[in-house]
Design a protein that fits this description.
Double Stranded RNA Binding Domain, five-stranded mixed sheet, 14 strands, 32% strand
Length: 266
Amino acid sequence: MTVDTPADVVVDARGEVTDEDRVYAQDKLFHVATRAPEPVLYGRVELTLHDDPARAKPAFATAELDVNGHLVRAHVAAATMRETVDLLEARLAARMERFAHRAESQHLRHRGDGEVWRHGDVPTERLPYYPRPVDEREIVRTKTFVAGPSTPDEAAFDLEMLDHEFHLFTNLETGEDNVIRRAAGGGYELFEPTATCSLTDASVEIRHNPARPTTTSVEGAQAILDAAEEPFVFFLDAQSGRGSVLYRRYDGHYGLIVVADEAPRS
């Protein structure tokens, strides 16, 4: 069923979120959905209001729209829930506009007419991580997926659409699992096991990161992240050899993304 009315947008709330803010967020997400170039199969927004007085931005919101099978996501944090929802609408609308023009702006595989797309969106602020003590941190979410092959350009585009800090994908040129992330000062960084991707045809600024993913277990990756201030660690699973990412969640816990050779059975 496509999103036809605000009521079709699902709103999940945690903490002392008011009914007025729930309806406000529902209406805002619906208005963005009406600007989609293709049918929106579903819309969902999650609102979280933390009661920790030490947080400068206790209101957190994340939203996603499934535009005919393509996810467009955004997440923001602010001092109040109403401010958060307004920022969420603006960020999601910018990503929807980019998605609507993807045929002209994305540097598509095998395209030779000189068209390029640029990373011109408002930079995503890194959300504040809750300073959870190391001995309390757990992996609370695991996502396993089959990564279809794509170019670094396409991976950068997906990164922007999904509003993530990083994107795990299988490099079309090398066949390796790679990670791409936004680079400080603009452009993107590519993390590879062997750094053999040429990047000569990239239409956006992408440079090789000199770090190489270590081969380790999930427990080993967690030990690395416990000792570091980085938002994520990209590693090769010691058993499967496939790429995985352990990352920090805003609640201070960890999430795990794993590339598999085949889709998990339901």
